[in-house]
Design goal:
There is one protein chain. This protein has about 110 residues and is mainly alpha-helical. About 50% of the residues lie in helices and about 5% in strands. The protein is built from 4 helices and 2 strands; from the N terminus they run H-H-E-E-H-H. The protein has a two-stranded antiparallel ribbon. Strand 1 and strand 2 form a beta hairpin. It is extended.
Length: about 110
């Protein structure tokens, strides 16, 4: 019985799609995963940066192979270079600029 409960907790905590939809629901944003939205009930903004890296088992969470990690890095860099993602990063940096301690991360 405990194995099933623990398994559900772990699955819920590591399921990015489920977490994404929960955040959309909680923040009242709806819409698609590719857009950023402002909550209708608060000033909280939610952004999802979610590069497509292939099939679910192409890059396991515990992957350590140098070739696989290099490929993952390439995919991520290409994704972040897309204009829509650059726009999101600019908006995020504007929010964080006034926050103490974040300046060192904003020098791109």
């Amino acid at each position: 019985a405990w194995d099933g409960i623990i398994g559900q907790i772990v699955s819920s905590a590591t399921d990015g799609e489920q977490i994404h939809h929960i955040l959309e629901d909680v923040l009242g944003q709806g819409g698609t995963a590719q857009l950023s939205h402002q909550s209708s009930v608060s000033k909280t903004r939610y952004y999802r940066l979610n590069p497509v890296v292939g099939m679910p088992n192409d890059f396991p969470i515990d992957e350590t192979g140098p070739d696989k990690l290099a490929e993952l890095s390439r995919i991520t860099n290409e994704y972040l270079a897309e204009e829509e993602q650059r726009r999101k990063l600019r908006e995020i940096s504007e929010v964080l600029e006034g926050k103490k301690g974040w300046a060192k991360f904003l020098n791109w």
